[in-house]
Write a structure and sequence with these properties.
It is an enzyme of class 4 (lyase). GO terms for molecular function: 2-C-methyl-D-erythritol 2,4-cyclodiphosphate synthase activity; metal ion binding. By secondary structure, the chain is an alpha+beta fold. The chain has 5 helices and 7 strands. The protein has a single domain, classed as 2-C-methyl-D-erythritol 2,4-cyclodiphosphate synthase (60s Ribosomal Protein L30, Chain: A, 2-Layer Sandwich), CATH 3.30.1330. Strand 2 and strand 3 form a beta hairpin. It is globular.
Length: 161
């Protein structure tokens, strides 16, 4: 049995916040606005897993109205989502994610992001693909107003060896 999920997450870039993508702190003059640490990449990955399992979205599991999640590390969000996946009897087949950011350039951070995700998702590095692209100066990404991330995941039933 396999299940497929997809998600997109978008956060606004603002001054005075750190930029964290894929659990990696990236030097930049702006960071992402959000109730948690606003790691748009980990949010898209976690929500694609929830979608594959038909368990709703991040807002259902981690509402921004709950002070318990204020400033939460998104690695913990992904960790808890992976726990839900395991409770349902699934594991990662593969994850394919893309970050849309005009700046900063992310190529030097992608391998660290992949490593973080593989560790948290309890899968092999070869099962995690993370790519980055720019907005080519078009739209909110191109104007550097925000960063978006998309993810498609394939889950496989643990019993299917």
């Amino acid at each position: 049995m396999i299940r497929i999920g997809q998600s997109i997450d978008i956060h606004q870039l603002v001054e005075g916040r750190p930029l964290i993508l894929g659990g990696v702190s990236i030097p930049f003059e702006k960071g992402l606005l959000g109730h948690s640490d606003a790691d748009v990449l980990l949010h898209a990955i976690a929500e694609s897993i929830l979608g594959a399992l038909a368990l709703g979205d991040l807002g259902h599991h981690f509402p921004d109205t709950d002070p318990a999640y204020k400033g939460m590390d998104s690695k913990e969000i992904l960790k808890r989502t992976v726990g839900l996946m395991e409770d349902e009897g699934y594991r990662i087949g593969n994850l394919d994610a893309t970050v849309l950011a005009e700046k900063p350039k992310l190529k030097d951070y992608v391998e660290s992001m992949r490593y973080n995700v593989a560790q948290i998702a309890k899968c092999d590095l070869s099962q995690v693909s993370i790519k980055a692209t720019r907005g080519e100066k078009m739209g909110f990404v191109g104007r550097q107003e925000g960063i978006a991330a998309l993810c498609v995941c394939l889950l496989t039933k643990k019993d299917d060896e």
